[in-house]
Structures are given as C-alpha cells and as structure tokens.
Write a structure and sequence with these properties.
globular; 3-stranded antiparallel sheet; EC 2.3.3.16; two-stranded antiparallel ribbon; Cytochrome p450-Terp, domain 2; about 375 residues
C-alpha cells in the first residue's frame, strides 16, 4: 500500500493510484491513450503526434502538430560537454547506462532544472525526447569506432534516428514498424519505471532525476530488459525444431522463459498482436522467418503447458534485431518511447502535488534489550 501526502492530507492508495493518461495495466480489452484506442493511433498518427496527445490530453491540430515537430527537430543536438563525457565512458558501459549518464549530464547543464513551471517543464520534456535518440545513436557509432552523424532537422523522428545510427534512411515499412514500437511503448501505466519517476518527482526533485530513476528501473529483466532477454533466448535456441524441447527443459529446470512474465491466466495484452504483426512483416522483409517460427513454437508450448501469453517484449526483441540493432541496445530503444509516458506521469504527479511515501509492515524481531557485554568499553 502507498500513502500519498499532499496539501496536509494523507491518502492511501490500494492499487498504486489513479491516472488520466492511459488504460495500460488495467483489466480492459481496449488499451487507450487519453481515450483513443492504441491501434487507431498506430494506424493514423505519427509518434510525435502521440507524444503531444499523451502530454497535452488531446491530439494536435495541424498547426499545433507542425509547431511541436519543429521544436523537436530544433533541440536534437548534444552539447560539446555532453559529447565529451560520453567519449570518456569505458567501452564496457551498457548502452542504457550511457543513456542514463547522458540524462544526468544534460540535467547538470540546465541551470534552472529545479523550476517545474509548466511551460519550462514541457520544454525540457521535448528536449529530452529529442535528444535521447541522438545519445543512443552516438553511443552506437562510438562503440564501433565510427564518426557520429549529427541529427538532420529535415528528417522525421524515426527517419532521423536511423540516419544517425546507420547513415541510411529506412524504407517506409521499416520506419512504420519502428514507429509502431515507439507508440506501443510510449505509455506503460504504473509500471516500476513509471512509479520510480513519480516517487522522485513527488519529492520536488527535477525532471532529470525522475527520468534517471525511471531509466534505472527499466534496466531490469522484469521491466524493459525483457526484450533483450527474449532475443538472447531465441539466439540460444537457434532452430525452430528445438523450440518445444527447449521450453519443456526450461520448465523442468524452473528456468524463466523470457517474454512470458505476466501472470498466468491473465490473457493476452492488447498491444501484443499489433507488435506481432510488425514482427512478421519485418521478418518477411529481412529474411527472418526462422525467428518467427521459433517464437511461434515457444508461444504454442507455453500456452499448452502453462496457459501463458507473451508480453509486448516477446515480439519486440526479434523485431529490433531484424532491423539491425544490437541486442544490448534494446532497453535504450524502448526508453526512446517510454520517455513520453514517464514525462506525462511526472507532469501529472506535479499537478497532484502529492508526496509519495510507501507504507511498510515491519516483520523483524520483537522489542528486545541490548546485552551489556556486547562491547568491551574498557578496551
């Protein structure tokens, strides 16, 4: 149970709280962002428009959308100081740790970071959303000894990211697939990473500290590290004919099967079929039928043996892999979408002006006396 203390009042949260942002994590058939079905947003909107919706509550009109995208394109670049810090990080740093460090540096360069006035907060939010792909692409190329490619303000959010990573513009099908993944990951309800961000901002910290906490929580295999674990599992299996036996052996050994971490019997997440369709389309373009067949074998066996359905990370991992991204990058790729939801929850928490403090039940030893002979005070 959580207690939220705001304005002198103390309220208990039974299930974690309430939100007006999305139905993600709710026991509903349709997943919505601000009331719009996610499948409709995927079909009709760009990622930037969905970000505007999640932050402002309504989809932008054409002029609002144009201005929003212009501002995003204008703040994609990294400062010389940020690039210098990234260049000095050891090669062993995981990409998500590089991203978390970059957020701290960007925050350190902001002399007014603690001012959470709405307009200033949204300007910082847009800059973080714009710069995260630049950081991820910068590290991708630095890790290969390649010169960085600066952001191109003439390109859209997705096309620019691929340009900065690979030096090529993706095909419309690949771009749409990646954009779909961004939209599906843009909001995740009161997940651990989102809750971490809300807890930090409730202390009247700044947006950078809250986002840094969210990134730290997202790194775990039970959160956004799941897509990485899925692809590592698929690579280990390697052959569609081995999928069923691999699952049975894993279950016998009580070994986790990545991508099936949801509660048994809770049903399929509404977003999973959308991402699965993207996975299949990308696999057809990139000669990845093997990965589809392994995934289908795993899913059939898990459903038969445990009644389990895959989570969103299950099709996401192999989709990123087929697009050409390294497995260790996957958490950072998801964070590029998650930043939208994190910031929406940060703004919502600031508006609620509540201080979140978990209530904990003590289950240690009963009250007891300290023996007088524990410490030899004469010595």
């Amino acid at each position: 149970m959580i207690a939220q203390n705001g304005g002198g009042r103390r309220t208990a949260w039974g299930g974690g709280g309430s939100t007006a942002i999305s139905t993600r994590g709710q026991e509903v058939k349709a997943q919505t962002y601000r009331g719009y079905p996610v499948e409709d947003l995927v079909a009709k909107c760009r990622f930037e428009e969905v970000a505007y919706l999640i932050w402002h509550g309504d989809l932008p009109d054409p002029e609002q959308g144009r201005r929003f995208m212009e501002r995003e394109r204008a703040v994609r670049g990294l400062s010389r100081g940020t690039r210098s810090v990234l260049d000095r990080l050891p090669d062993c740093c995981a990409p998500i740790d590089v991203l978390r460090t970059a957020i701290s540096v960007i925050g350190g360069e902001d002399g007014e970071a603690e001012i959470n006035e709405p307009l200033a907060l949204r300007a910082r939010a847009l800059a973080l959303m714009a710069r995260m792909p630049t950081v991820v692409a910068y590290e991708y190329r630095r890790n290969r000894g390649l010169d960085s490619i600066p952001p191109d303000p003439d390109l859209g959010f997705v096309e620019n990211f691929f340009w900065m990573c690979f030096g090529v513009i993706p095909s419309p099908a690949i771009a749409h697939g990646f954009e779909t993944a961004l939209i599906l990951h843009a909001e995740n309800g009161f997940s651990p990473s989102t809750f971490a961000a809300r807890v930090v901002i409730s202390t009247q910290s700044d947006i950078y500290g809250a986002v840094g906490a969210a990134i730290g929580a997202s790194k775990g295999a039970r959160q956004d590290g799941g897509a990485q674990a899925v692809m590592q599992m698929l690579l280990e299996i390697g052959d569609p004919r081995s999928a069923e036996a691999w699952v049975r052996d894993a279950l016998a050994r009580r070994r986790p099967v990545a991508g099936f971490g949801a509660d048994i019997g809770c049903g399929e997440e509404p977003c999973v079929p959308i991402m699965t369709q993207v996975f299949q389309e990308v696999a057809a373009l990139r000669h990845g039928r093997k990965w589809v067949e392994i995934s289908e074998g795993l899913e059939r066996t898990m459903r038969k043996e445990k009644g389990a359905f895959p989570g969103l990370e299950f099709p996401t991992g192999p989709t990123y892999y087929l697009m050409g991204f390294d497995v260790p990058m996957f958490i950072s790729l998801i964070a590029m979408g998650r930043i939208v939801g994190w910031i929406a929850h940060i703004i919502e928490q600031i508006d609620e002006d509540g201080f979140i403090r978990p209530l904990v039940a003590y289950h240690g030893p009963a009250l007891r006396a300290v023996p007088g002979s524990v410490i030899d005070r004469a010595g």
